[in-house]
Design brief:
The structure is a homodimer.
Chain A: H1 12-19, E1 24-28, E2 33-35, E3 43-49, E4 51-57, E5 63-70, E6 74-75, E7 87-91, E8 95-101, H2 102-111, H3 113-139, H4 142-159, E9 166-168, H5 173-180, H6 184-196, E10 200-203, E11 206-209, H7 212-218
Antiparallel strand pairs in A: 1-8, 2-7, 3-6, 3-8, 4-5, 4-7, 9-11, 10-11
Helix pairs in contact in A: 2-3, 4-7, 5-6
The structure holds a DNA duplex.
DNA sequence: CGCGCCGTTGATATTATTCAAGACCAGTGG
DNA sequence: CCACTGGTCTTGAATAATATCAACGGCGCG
């Protein structure tokens, strides 16, 4: 956990300080909201166990999954600027969260340069991540989008020490579609097609990547 | 400028410190790159005059306009996490930039809480902005996208004291399309349609909003 | 004046959505 | 134990939205 999260690279002394930061732990059941759009922003949250989706809401009620978050991810970063959360975070399974009160985090960041650096890294990476999703949504075909999604997921599991070729999706087809700017039927069809083509094996939410190289090749083949 | 930018809300004393931060000024001509994808990250940049587009690059060479930036905007935020700029910034007209060396900015932010706060605000707002673009790209129809784009532009001009109803686009149809996930022909057709429908007046890049309310209504009407 | 880039518009093709029906699956209560 | 239910997933056929291809007009600049 430490390796992935904010305290990365801190010495023992600083670490002690950071330990005082963690306000509390929260346990969520599947479907519980960690925060909702419009809630006052007070804290960032680190995922300790389980996974969540975050969704952006449009004024007209439209909703889009903006991210899928697992162990070590920091969420709530978009709330800093607006004092209100602009999106919603909902647990996809039983999940545990560390609450990081943001004012204390800012105070501590002034005292501990490495922590400041890490905070900036996380903020900036979120921006890069979002840019990549924009690229995906704006210029990729449906097929490519799903391939990117699967490979990205595989990579994140790998980094956390899980199998990168075999995993169980925590999202429904609809949630995946919402994240990728596609309809659930399209996602379903693509899974079937990938399966037929021998790229993956799919049974409901259980996915096995059979030919990651071919999935990678798929990306970059414009319509 | 100060109102919009990082030093917002600082007292005179702190302001003096911040003044020492600005490393240098850069002048760009139309088409010049402020930085390119892959360049080492060292500084953030504040737009003093003119405008730029930033573009994300995919591995396969695909390119997408990720943002359009004007007076007071801070760009380069995505480079912090990766040590390399993940995107490219190109001037759309003659443009002047303040260079803000990031290490010094971090040092100063530890000393000046309000500056730290502002930096976090900018980072977080960029995230919110990106989430909104994701929503646009993932769930809006072409028509809605252009309406959002125009209204957003109008709002930004308004805040800067320019006319919010009459302005000259600095981007080509292709660049607008790239930003909105559309082809240039589609953008052109939409401009024509909005014109026919009396929503806007358009002549090349000169745009006049005739009925902003109707444009707003347009948003939220799903396919 | 001529060249190149930009923008417009039409006809056609493609892609993804919509609508619709049914299968599957887990949990629930009889 | 089984039928029932609601949510999820799959698949097909028809449809709508946007992309592609292509031609041309205009404008600015050397």
């Amino acid at each position: 956990m430490r390796e992935l999260c904010l305290p990365f690279g801190l010495n023992a002394e600083d670490m002690q300080q950071v330990d005082t930061l963690v306000g509390s732990r929260v346990k969520l059941k599947k479907g519980d909201a960690l925060y909702r759009a419009g809630d006052a922003f007070q804290s960032l949250y680190a995922v300790r166990l389980g996974s969540l989706k975050t969704t952006v809401l449009a004024e007209d009620g439209r909703e889009q999954v903006s991210g899928y978050h697992m162990l070590g991810d920091i969420i709530g970063l978009d709330g800093i600027g607006t004092e209100r959360h602009g999106c919603q975070a909902v647990a996809l399974e039983d999940t545990e969260i560390c609450v990081l009160p943001f004012e204390r985090l800012e105070d501590l960041a002034r005292a501990v340069p490495q922590l400041q650096r890490n905070l900036h890294l996380f903020l900036s990476r979120e921006i890069s991540r979002d840019h990549n999703i924009m690229l995906l949504l704006g210029s990729m075909r449906a097929e490519e989008r799903l391939a990117v999604f699967l490979l990205n997921l595989a990579d994140r599991y790998r980094r956390r020490g899980y199998s990168s070729t075999e995993f169980v999706l925590r999202m429904t087809r609809e949630e995946i579609g919402s994240h990728l700017g596609l309809k659930l039927e399209t996602v379903s069809r693509l899974f079937s097609r990938f399966h037929e083509d021998g790229l993956i094996q799919v049974q409901g939410r259980a996915v096995k990547l059979l030919n990651a190289a071919a999935l990678k090749e798929l990306i970059g083949q414009h319509g």
